């Protein structure tokens, strides 16, 4: 339904569309701030490309460490392959999940013998880390603005708001992770879960913005946000849960999903209540 | 104008003929405000400050300045006259004309000259940081540490976001990023100066002004970042939003 790329990706890439995450040619990769392109799905291609130097570059111990890290922490580069159109469409999905007519499953493609998902540019259902990061930053800035409008702004208060936001994100990640673990397997990549958890900040920003513009709109926007976030998380976690779970106990799945949706209410109300002391 | 100190001339052994002994000798720096001596190293009729020299009398009269002058000049190897010493600002790496050129390029909000920012430096941002802190101080807020911390954090944030978005060919380095974030703080400095004169009750004026200056900053920073580092052209809007967040944060400090 959402086509983020103008022409089809099968055509030769003349238009300067960024390459997908798996390198198609074994170029020497640029150093990236976190993680490295040697872990993750493209690592096999890079290693074969480097050929004889592969063994020298990866000493035996560092390869062990890298393979372990790649098990827990997938390549963050994948989550930042976004463009304007993707961001706009994804925001529409997160804020109004009822209106999304398409399917919610991620498109997977076989790469190097393993099954991996298409990067966010090609697939509207893929999680990305750009929107959560920006939404978190917007939340902190808007919360500071709202504090200032009530006369209570100070840099320390902003630091506490940052901490509060981080704790909220962490709690959301824990919620999703525990619901995955309780079904027996928690093998979804951690960054995926961090990304899904971070999408709640978009709705939260909307609520805080509403509070700034007109005080009473907050009481309408917060339930709306909780509902939308709940629906979005349920619809997103459903394929993940059903893919990861071993036993097919469908009633337990549904209870867990309903619990995830209901837990959004206290979490978002806590996060949306912007005050100087960060507990409540 | 220049006064010669009334000290007996000190004659050093002539080690200047052989190259090996030259290395052993420390470089002789003249006393400031004295006439430069004739450039024969054998008979030096002035008092020279040598770190390990046998001229103890010179050391006592040199005082605290002696060690510094000879230590700084012992790294150079040239002739010992005063004019050949590097000027202080050059040695520190501060080029005021370059700083002024870069600052002036941001002053015009509609056309930003990108070539002048190609080599990044951090001394301009330090001046702008001090100016911002000064204006905040005049407004009664002591926020030196806060602003410095926020500059560091926001430049790391922009560095991470840009390099992640640009992917394999992103080559923004942290020094350039900090330099750009610092220089584009200029509109925020102007905002803090202007908001000193806005009357107390007119809150809306402050917000409107802040909006204008933040947009100016954002435009400058995103244009410069995209043009100075590869890989950012497709993501202009996304990077501009990150810059917008950064400068809104600073403007919050100024308004409230």
UniProtKB/TrEMBL annotation, chain A:
Gene (UniProt): LOC104699965
Region (Disordered) residue spans: 1-34
Organism for this UniProt entry: Camelina sativa
Cellular location(s): Endoplasmic reticulum membrane; Golgi apparatus membrane
Family: Belongs to the YIF1 family.
Keyword list, A-Z: Endoplasmic reticulum, Golgi apparatus, Membrane, Protein transport, Transmembrane, Transmembrane helix, Transport
Topological category with respect to the lipid bilayer: Multi-pass membrane protein
Pro residues: compositionally biased ranges: 20-34
Segments crossing the lipid bilayer: 129-151, 157-178, 190-210, 216-234, 255-276
Protein name: Protein YIF1B isoform X1
TrEMBL record, chain B:
Principal location: Golgi
Family designation: Belongs to the YIP1 family.
InterPro entries reported in the protein's UniProt record: Yip1/4-like, Yip1_dom
Name of the protein described by the UniProt record: Protein YIP
Topological relation to the membrane, as annotated: Multi-pass membrane protein
Residue ranges of the TM segments: 145-165, 177-198, 204-226, 238-255
Pfam families, alphabetized: Yip1 (PF04893)
Keyword Transmembrane helix: yes
Alphabetical UniProt keywords: Membrane, Transmembrane, Transmembrane helix
Region: Disordered, residue numbers: 1-23
Domain (Yip1): residue spans on this chain: 105-254
Native source species: Camelina sativa (False flax)
Subcellular location: Golgi apparatus membrane; Membrane
């Amino acid at each position: 339904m959402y086509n983020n790329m103008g022409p089809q990706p099968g055509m030769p890439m003349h238009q300067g569309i960024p390459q997908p995450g798996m390198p198609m040619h074994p170029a020497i990769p640029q150093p990236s701030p976190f993680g490295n392109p040697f872990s993750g799905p493209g690592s096999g291609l890079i290693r074969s490309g480097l050929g004889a130097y592969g063994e020298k570059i990866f000493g035996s111990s560092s390869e062990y460490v890298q393979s372990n890290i790649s098990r827990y922490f997938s390549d963050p580069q994948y989550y930042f392959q976004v463009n304007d159109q993707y961001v706009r469409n994804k925001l529409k999905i997160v804020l109004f999940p009822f209106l999304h007519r398409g399917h919610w499953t991620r498109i997977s493609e076989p790469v190097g013998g393993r099954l991996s998902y298409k990067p966010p540019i090609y697939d509207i259902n893929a999680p990305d880390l750009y929107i959560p990061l920006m939404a978190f930053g917007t939340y902190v800035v808007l919360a500071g603005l709202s504090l200032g409008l009530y006369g209570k702004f100070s840099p320390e208060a902003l630091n506490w708001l940052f901490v509060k936001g981080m704790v909220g994100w962490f709690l959301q990640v824990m919620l999703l992770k525990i619901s995955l673990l309780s079904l027996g397997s928690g093998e979804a990549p951690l960054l995926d879960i961090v990304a899904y958890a971070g999408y709640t900040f978009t709705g939260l920003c909307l609520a805080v913005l509403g509070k700034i513009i007109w005080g009473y709109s907050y009481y309408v926007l917060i339930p709306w946000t909780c509902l939308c976030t709940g629906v979005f998380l349920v619809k997103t976690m459903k394929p993940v849960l059903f893919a990861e779970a071993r036993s097919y106990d469908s009633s337990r799945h549904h209870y867990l999903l309903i619990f995830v949706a209901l837990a959004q209410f206290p979490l978002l109300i806590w996060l949306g209540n912007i005050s100087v002391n960060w507990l409540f | 104008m220049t006064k010669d100190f009334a000290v007996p001339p000190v004659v050093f052994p002539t080690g200047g003929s052989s190259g090996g002994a030259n290395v052993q000798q420390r470089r002789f720096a003249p006393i400031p405000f004295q006439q430069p001596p004739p450039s024969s190293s054998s008979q030096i009729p002035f008092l020279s400050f040598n770190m390990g020299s046998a001229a103890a009398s010179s050391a006592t009269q040199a005082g605290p300045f002696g060690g510094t002058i000879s230590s700084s000049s012992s790294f150079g190897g040239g002739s010992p006259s005063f004019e050949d010493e590097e000027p202080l600002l050059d040695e520190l790496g501060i080029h005021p004309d370059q700083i002024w050129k870069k600052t002036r390029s941001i002053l015009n909000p509609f056309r930003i000259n990108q070539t002048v920012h190609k080599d990044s430096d951090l001394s301009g941002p330090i001046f702008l940081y001090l100016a911002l802190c000064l204006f905040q101080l005049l407004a009664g807020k002591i926020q030196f540490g806060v602003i410095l911390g926020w500059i560091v954090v926001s430049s790391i944030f922009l560095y991470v976001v840009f390099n992640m978005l640009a992917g394999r060919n992103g080559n923004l380095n942290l020094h350039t990023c900090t330099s750009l974030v610092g220089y584009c703080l200029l509109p925020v400095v102007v905002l803090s100066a202007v908001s000193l004169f806005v009357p107390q009750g007119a809150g809306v004026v402050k917000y409107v002004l802040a909006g204008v200056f933040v947009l100016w900053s954002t435009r400058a920073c995103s244009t410069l970042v995209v043009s100075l580092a590869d890989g950012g052209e497709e993501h202009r809007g996304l990077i501009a939003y990150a810059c917008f967040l950064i400068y809104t944060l600073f403007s919050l400090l100024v308004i409230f």
